[in-house]
Amino acid sequence: MPDAAAQRLASIRQRIAAVAQGRTATLVAVSKTQPAARVRAMHAAGQTVFGENYVQEALAKMTELADCAIEWHLIGPLQSNKCREVAEHFDWMQTLDRAKLIPLLARHRPDGRAPLNVLVQVNLDDEDSKSGAHPADIDALADAVARQPRLRLRGLMSIPKPWPNPDQRRAGFRALHAMFQALKQRHPGIDTLSMGMSDDFELALAEGATMVRVGSALFGPRG
Length: 223
Ligand SMILES: *Cc1c(COP(=O)(O)O)cnc(C)c1O
What we know:
Shape: globular
Order of helices and strands: HEHEHEHEHEHEHEHEH
Bound molecules: pyridoxal-5'-phosphate
Strand content: 15-25%
Oligomer: single chain
CATH topology: TIM Barrel
């Protein structure tokens, strides 16, 4: 029987490689709403980086998949009362969008673990969405993350509006890449620009993404 998970993974990896042209690009497999068994199958196919949106759902999967070497990314909004669980159990936190979370994440990151990797989430164009920092606030947030020894500033993340027009999408990705370059002047150690999902990850890679977050194109439609 053909291994469906392995086939879908190989096809996404091929599409990434075709656009990235030798640059490294990290694929985050977005496993929200997918049962642990499907994550396990994708891990068995060779995928090690997974993204989850909801802390409780993620913790349950981490327990069930404790025998799998997985790098877990939080890609959903974080409430301050969940900072402890995130600091204790995740490897990356991609949705840092307000200063209040920073000392909480730092305080709860266990000493025995590597610093928590942090991306500042940018709200590029969606004034109605509560997630993401205003572009004018990125520097201050990034500086505050960088001052915490238990956190490691890695770069920026964004979920731009899914404009139907590809030129408009491309312009958004390009603007984010410019913000990333500007932040790199200030924090030369950053290396990650997380943007692009199932519908547009190739466009995002063409505009400088170093990390793409792919769910439905990898696992099939969510139930
Ligand atoms: C769900 C989600 C994704 C993946 O979306 P697909 O369209 O299924 O690839 C990526 N990033 C974030 C932040 C998400 O919430």
